[in-house]
Amino acid sequence: MDNLAHALAGAALGEAGLKRWTGLGMAALIVGANLPDVDVLGLLVGENLAWRRGWTHGPLGLLLLPPLLAAALIALDRWQGGRGRRPAARPPVRPGPLLALAYAGALSHPLLDLLNTYGVRLLMPFSDRWFYGDTLFIIDVWLWTLLAAGVLLSRRRARAGHPAPARPALTGLLLACSYVGAMGLGSAQAARLAQAAAEARGLRPVDAAVASPVPVDPFRRDLVVRADGRLLFGELRFAPGPRLSMSPAAAPTNMADPAVAAAAGRSKDVADFLYWSRLPFARVERRADGAVVTVADARYSDGSTPGRFSVTARVPAAGEASARTDRPPTSAGRAPDWPAGN
Predict the structure, then answer these.
(1) Radius of gyration, alpha carbons of the chain
(2) Burial bucket for residue 178 (CB in 10 Å: 0-12, 13-18, 19+)
(3) Could you say which of 123, 181, 307, 336 is the most buried, measured as most Cβ atoms within 10 Å of its Cβ?
(4) For residue 39, what is the DSSP state?
(5) Residue ranges per structural domain of the chain
(6) CA 150, 156, 162: angle at the middle one, nearest 5?
């Protein structure tokens, strides 16, 4: 999810009562909830897809990052105290509870990331498998609203001296969980209907059926089904009544084209993209001196255009010929799991 959603989740946990465990408890929760995204620093060295949502989102990262955060907050508290800048209203900082809150915040991060179609590698570095929840769009205004309302109302109650200031934040968290559950059930049902529609058209075997949530509208899903090297796109609207529409014909993925393998072998960007991609498809433009290969992902495209996630590479004629027998490794050092297709 986006970093505002992560920060609101940490803040809601704090206002629900956890921040009272120790001084700087709210900071541990909010910063901890965003801490795994430190892997964005890979952009500084030219890395992106192959780094994102990996090591810092897996067991080792989640084990090691919270103690570093707790140590940094303790150091900050002591530094402020030594210079007379420590806020007088701040409760004593207790290392044990502070560490527990840093872990709580950090663990909330992959749980939220798991909810969208982008994916997260929960087991890195022990496994580079991607996990997908297909439950929420990566920026969900309704999740923001539920969490933010709980946080703001709890803070207002606390300032007014209300005897139960944590109740709105707890209610916001419960409503957010209920919303997430309902969205997950909707996506699962949409994926089943899309697969059934594809099979009714004779598209078998179906090896992927993805129902993607869309911005703002919780009653619509964008659908993609992959079967026998072809992609079928569609849409499901739940309101005012279930309406399923699928594209007239399935489009080939073109992933068996030797130019795609050649592009992955020549371009790190393409290899990294295929390592990350869930529903890859390619467009190959052949020229006298070779080919131009554009690889995209059907999660973020309607099939007619590459969409907002795509990479392009040029392949000389000699490189395409050699790729007919050699399958290039991805950035993870293994062959990509390309679907068959023409």
Answers:
(1) 24
(2) exposed
(3) 336
(4) G
(5) 3-133, 192-251, 253-322
(6) 100
Q: Which one, of 286, 184, 140, 296, lies nearest residue 233 by Cα?
A: 296
- Tokens of residue 51, six digits: 């780094």
Q: What is the pLDDT of residues 246-301, one digit of tens each?
A: 998 899 999 999 999 999 999 999 999 999 999 999 999 998 888 999 999 999 98
Phi/psi of residue 83, nearest 5 degrees: -110, 10
End-to-end CA distance of the chain: 35
pTM for this entry: 0.88
pLDDT in the model for residue 322: 55
Q: Tell me how far apart the alpha carbons of residues 208 and 199 are, in angstroms, rounded to a whole number.
A: 12
Tell me 43's DSSP state: G
CB 302 within 8 A of CB 223: no
CA distance 164 to 146: 19
Alpha-helical runs (H) found in the chain: 3-15, 25-34, 59-82, 95-113, 141-159, 167-200, 258-266, 268-276, 317-322
